[in-house]
Input
Amino acid sequence: MPSFTIRQFKNYAVKELEGFSVSPELDVQVFLQHAFNFDKTHLLLASDEIIPKKHLLWLKEAVNKRKTGLPVAYITGIKEFYGYEFIVSPDVLIPKPDTEILVDHAVRQIMDKIRRTERILCICDMCTGSGCIAVSVLKTLSEKYKVEDEALPVFTLADISEKALEVARKNTTNVLKTPSLLQKIRFIRSNLFENVTGSFDFIITNPPYIPHSMVVELLKDGRNEPPLALDGDVTLEGELTSKDDGMEVIRNLIEQSTVYLSPGGTVLMETGEYNAGKTSDFARKYGFKTAVYKDLEGQPRVVEMKL
Output
């Protein structure tokens, strides 16, 4: 196998990915940083170093995988979200920047309620996937807002997929680390609230909300994200509705939330920009007062529902 310096490999790999990726230079940069565990500055300073064979083998394989459409995060197994590094795999969605808006609103509202009550709050992260939402909220309350351990909320992380819950368990251990924070988390496999008990002050959720026809098109590019975490047209029985509006999971989740929310409780839900308004309208039919918040591109994204 021919040898490469870091600079030579970067030039080679960028050319290889042209036409396969919209951001070939960034992709290669991430691969190199991951392979060497270098930051950008260290990588630049090492540009003329020869790449060891074991690193080169991984890097070439990473480029080949990327050419199939597989996302960079699935190749490295890591994605940064809300300032923390999360493990990801094709069993969970890759955390998106827009979902940080959901975390922002959750942290602010939960913190406000902590200040106004002496009891321990209960929070459910429904359709938790990688666990990035609940873990980011808990970590931020502890680190940024300095909430004492005994005053921190307790979190229930629920998902229909056991494989997703396995990823979430790893992330709670890797990100939260301390036993005092880890004991604030419980996991439950459940089809929405089917196996969940208790009531919650907050339900935070990024459920499947993409119409089935859009999911089919999205997955043609080889991104390999789990259809179950994307398709919002799946019924509680696992069948497809004919509505193709991405709202079936949302409708069931809103209806069930009226049973599992504590008095004065709040649902914070990420939706698609094309169905945020419909979500808000549907929630009002169940007695919720609603507000819709925009994402980083000014599109409606997070729906707040208060009883």
About this structure: The longest helix spans residues 99-116. The radius of gyration is 21 Å. The chain has a mean pLDDT of 96. Strands lie at 78-81, 84-87, 122-126, 154-159, 185-189, 200-205, 261-270, 289-294, 300-306.
